[in-house]
Amino acid sequence: MKPSSTDTQYSTTLNTGKHWSLRLRRGMALQLTDETGGTNVGMVLYNAENLLERYNAPDTLKCQHTFHLTAGHCLYSDMGHVLASIVESTADGHETVCGNSTQDSVSGRFGGRSYQADRNAWHQNGNDAFLVELAKYGLNRRDLPANINWFSRCDIGAGGELSLTDPASSAGSRVTLRMEMDCLVLLHTCPHPMSTLTQYPAGTVGIKLFTAPAMQADDLCLNHCDENRRGFANNRLYHLGRA
Length: 243
Fold this sequence. Notes:
Blueprint lengths: L7 E8 L3 E6 L3 E7 L6 E7 L2 E5 L2 H7 L10 E3 L5 E8 L13 H8 L4 H4 L7 H10 L12 E3 L2 E4 L5 E4 L7 E7 L3 E6 L15 E8 L14 H17 L1
């Protein structure tokens, strides 16, 4: 899904180790592009009208009988609502079970750096990046759910071990989300917690916002499974109550 230049309402780029957040209206599309390849984008979502309701990774996976997120899948809240749906993905699956990098894991792999000493060349980690964004909305560590890692794919071995496909995406890979509720979206571009790189990555992620086409009867996400149809029915009831 490529918006025309007149459709794009906002665009920016983030280098590796950055973080970003915004309240997005229902009906907006958020498109992420891995411009350099092999970039990780962590994300969490909240109901913008009730920040106690947030993305739920276990429900998202089990109700759609999947381990990898891709086009056609919905992102569920802990109250059974569809926060957003994946209307496009050109990458080979995305994971939502491995969580975030931490200060210890990043310094242990890439070497310790601080903003005070290294300025923009420091090594930010995913956990702290989320905490910075959460604080802007009166939230803290206890409000951080399991996150999605876009453009990162993990597979399970015969013995149950997890392994990261590195890199999981090529330059130009993109994923497009259609917001199904007003959502607060937080993201970061810090390395995946299972990264096997020996140097802190230097990638670029593109962000575009535009108005998503209206859902049709043959919508890929709506018809992916019975649970998704029930999820969208829950959304209709929710929005009816807010009308």
